[in-house]
Amino acid sequence: MPVDPAIESRAAEAEIEDHDATVTDVTAMDRDREAEIDAAVDTSREAIRRRLDIQEALGPLGESGDAWDRVTAELSAQGEEELNGKIEALKKRLERPYPSLVRIRFEVGGAADDPDDTSFDYVPGQYARISYDDEEPRVYSIASSPNRDYVELCIRRVPGGELTPHLCTETKVGDSLFVRGPYGDELMLQEPSERDLVFIATGTGVAPFKSMINYVFEEGMDQYDGEDRDVWLFLGSSWEDHLPYHEEFRQLDEERGNFHYVPTLSRENYLTDWAGETDYVQYCLLRYLDREATDLDALPEEFADYADKEPTVDVDGDARVDPSKMEVYVCGIGAMCDPIEDVVASLGVGEEFLDVESYG
């Protein structure tokens, strides 16, 4: 995509430097949901015993592994896929350590080659390499706006990972980190135009977009020639508390009439009365299209089915996405990014207005 010249220039001028840094905040964004899971299982326990004619008692999901493994195997064998899917999903969630999603803020100290240089200049969409204790360094997208006086990372615990378990459970305020960067020129904001901005992400793929979105509003890039540009964020995950910055995006949605936040959750209704979107995020965009500006007949059948559905989220001013006036930024797992490229292409959006970064 044609990158904003000012941002491109700053990225080119920024030198990759080594800095010591001090942690100033560590906050878990997910929560311990064991009690909720136990309550959800309680509502199904007796029905399962009757359906499968099980005589033995079924204890808590996390304490009766073998018994529940037999239950899920039998449910699957009997074609009870919906109930089996619920139990499997709850069991997997219960096994996930807490916390598994944290934000870490730090202040940058002096550069290795100049102790008086405490600046860490970056642009939205860039990332940094982080070292902590003796663990192997890893790179993480920067979630904070360059206008802030701190740097923030969004960390998701990777099962079996080298660094993320330590960052999620051991990092505390006052700890020292080693930071190298900034890196990256692959994911950057376009030069302001009349086009609306559409961000699509899964999980921590939203980190660079949080930096971008905050920067857009701080710098007035949400306007062009005196007119508002709509800024959309479609963010997907399995569970509500696995949506990074969920409450902050909700608040921004309330404060800014031209910011539209559409979260979608595939499993949250196993635990709560989630009334929002549940489709995979790569297809949610289709429900919010401006139908008068979209040739729905040109969509492949598998996409048209989603476009025919009414939106679940009440968008301020009944705003809709006009494919001919959007620039699209995508970041997340490959299983999401690949289909969204097909979706965007089917809407007639040129490659010059699509920026994709995938992982995993």
UniProtKB/TrEMBL annotation:
GO terms for molecular function: oxidoreductase activity. SUPFAM superfamilies: Ferredoxin reductase-like, C-terminal NADP-linked domain, Riboflavin synthase domain-like. Residues 80-189 form the FAD-binding FR-type domain. Pfam families: FAD_binding_6, NAD_binding_1. It comes from Halogeometricum pallidum JCM 14848. The lineage of its organism: Archaea, Methanobacteriati, Methanobacteriota, Stenosarchaea group, Halobacteria. Residues 1-25 are annotated as: Disordered. InterPro entries: Cbr1-like_FAD-bd_dom (IPR008333), FAD-bd_FR_type (IPR017927), Flavoprot_Pyr_Nucl_cyt_Rdtase (IPR001709), FNR_nucleotide-bd (IPR039261), MRET (IPR050415), OxRdtase_FAD/NAD-bd (IPR001433), Riboflavin_synthase-like_b-brl (IPR017938). This is Oxidoreductase FAD-binding domain-containing protein. It comes from the Archaea.
